[in-house]
Amino acid sequence: MNREPIKNICVLFFGIMFSGSIASAAVTFDWAVIGNAGNEKDEQTGYGAVADEYSISKTEVTTAQYVEFLNAVAATDTYGLYDTNMGGSTWYSGISRSGSSGSWEYSANAGWEKKPVVYVTWYDTLRFTNWLHNGQQGAGTTEYGAYNMAQGASVVRLDGADYWLPSEDEWYKAAYYSQSGTYYDYATGTDIVPSRTTPAGDTGNSANYYDGNTYLGLTDVGAYDESESPYGTYDQNGNVWEWNEALIDSNRGLRGGSWSDQPYLPASYRSYGDPAFGYYYVGFRVASSFTGNEGGAVPEPASVGLVLLSVGGLVLRRAKRA
Fold first, then answer.
1. What's this model's pTM, rounded to 2 decimal places?
2. Has residue 242 got a pLDDT over 60?
3. Any idea of the CA torsion for 208, 245, 131, 219, to the nearest 10 degrees?
4. Which of 43, 51, 259, 265 has its CA 20 to 30 Å from the CA of residue 89?
5. How far is residue 283's CA from residue 258's CA, in Å, rounded to a whole number?
């Protein structure tokens, strides 16, 4: 398939969007630019080496962002991008669907807009990034772009992708590496286990995970705004596990731990899930080839509060592995 026409359209679209007109896209992100291209892997785990500079969304994909995606491409929902559990389950009630097949409409339920979307399969995340790559157009833009979905279980990222699901190394580097060349044990830039607190009690080294007694449930993305990674990402420890591209036997990779688990937060811990299954404790974030000015802070119109996320005040930074 000749992808040049699609690519040319995308170049025009993103040239407009990143020239200052954020209204040209329904979904935009606040990006962390991950530099230090060609860094060495973490010798203790073998992960984290990335050859090129890239950007990664500072927060997980939100319910509101996924609703925009559904309304753009899922009037018929040929590919099952909406899980009925999204409309009302024990732990998540973020998205309502109304109408009938061919004219489905979706809306974010009050109070869930800024929480990470869950019940997304690994394949759903690839279709979401294809949609971003193709300029957030309608149905038919989910099957080719960053990924050729016709490849099925063996699908891999295509050359020239503008947006994609992070590789395990890309995810790992954004979480645990610092510009000074140091790997940390935790995604808060420290080797000290993050405290389990509510966002209001954020100490600068806090995360949302299960303490063995009570659950906090899903929190808004970026709510722990003092507990960023060295590159300025949020919630790469806790809140929800996050899909990545890693192939582990017939499964796909998960990283970061969640609100419903004991603290599986360290860099040494990786997990996996069935790529065709959506879990109530698993979400995702996206990566992009856009860096520099075009990869910088672009607030999502539906979540203006995200512009308040600070990149200052790194605390509890203790070097371990230079």
1. 0.84
2. yes
3. 0
4. 265
5. 10
Q: In what order do the strands lie in the sheet with 241-248?
A: 271-273, 251-255, 241-248, 282-283
Residue written as token pair 């990779």: 253
Q: Give tens-digit pLDDT for 249-302.
A: 999 999 999 999 988 999 999 999 999 999 999 999 999 999 964 433 333 333
> How would you class 199 by CB atoms within 10 Å of its CB: exposed for 0-12, middle for 13-18, buried for 19 or more?
middle
Q: In what order do the strands lie in the sheet with 31-34?
A: 31-34, 54-57, 287-288, 163-164
Q: Contact, 183 vs 321, CB < 8 A?
A: yes
Contact 56, 286 (CB under 8 A): yes
Structure tokens of 126? Answer: 């690839």
**Averaged confidence pLDDT in the chain:** 86
Distances (CA, A) of 61 to 21, 69, 181, 204: 21, 11, 28, 22
User: Is the Cβ–Cβ distance between 278 and 284 less than 8 Å?
Assistant: no
Residue 66 in tokens: 């996924």
What domains can you pick out in the chain, each with its CATH number?
4-308 (3.90.1580)
Q: Are 171 and 244 in contact (CB under 8 A)?
A: yes
